[in-house]
Amino acid sequence: MIAQGIGMRLAMGTHSSNLASMYAALTPVLADMASASVDALEAALAAASTPANPLPPPPPVVVGEGVEVADDYTHRAPSDPAFAEAVHVHFYAPASQWGGYLRCSNRPNEGVADVSVCLFRPDGSVVVDAQ
Asked: Which stretches of 60-97 are assigned E, i.e. beta strand?
């Protein structure tokens, strides 16, 4: 998806001068990462089995005032058309001083899901900003 987003920006002409080289460099890396993720997911699904007598769900675990572990999972969408859920992952590598974030969002009532990725150089400039 990241490579596709960058590719769309290239096709639309809305890119910085070095975005084309970043796209060329990222495409095989992202393809390898996606392939490894799919392989791992398929292996996990193949290894998983449903027990004959599944255990009842555990009681809610409160991790803070009004926050439960179950809050980390998707929720039944209310009738509000603007309802959305998102996961934000921020990262930073102290040794190289590179950082960034990944945001995955789902708007089930609109049938839309999206991913945003941003990668920062040590000087704070943006290398990749794809949606």
From this structure: 62-64, 67-68, 85-93
Query: CB–CB of 116/103 below 8 Å?
Result: yes
Identify any residues that bridge with 102 across adjacent strands, giving them in sequence order: 89, 117
pLDDT, residue 1, reads 47
pLDDT of the residue at 33: 62
| Residue stretches of the chain with pLDDT short of 50 | 1-4, 6-7, 14-15
Could you count the other beta carbons within 10 Å of the beta carbon of residue 68?
13
Among left, alpha and beta (phi > 0; psi -120 to 50; other), residue 88 is beta
- Phi first, then psi: give them for residue 14, nearest 5 degrees: -105, 70
How far apart (Å, rounded) are the C-alpha atoms in residues 131 and 120?
15
Element (H, E) at 30: helix 19-47
CA distance 27 to 43: 24
pTM: 0.44
Instruction: Kindly list the distances between the CA atom of residue 64 and the CA atoms of 50, 67, 87, in Å, as whole numbers in the listed order.
Output: 32, 5, 19
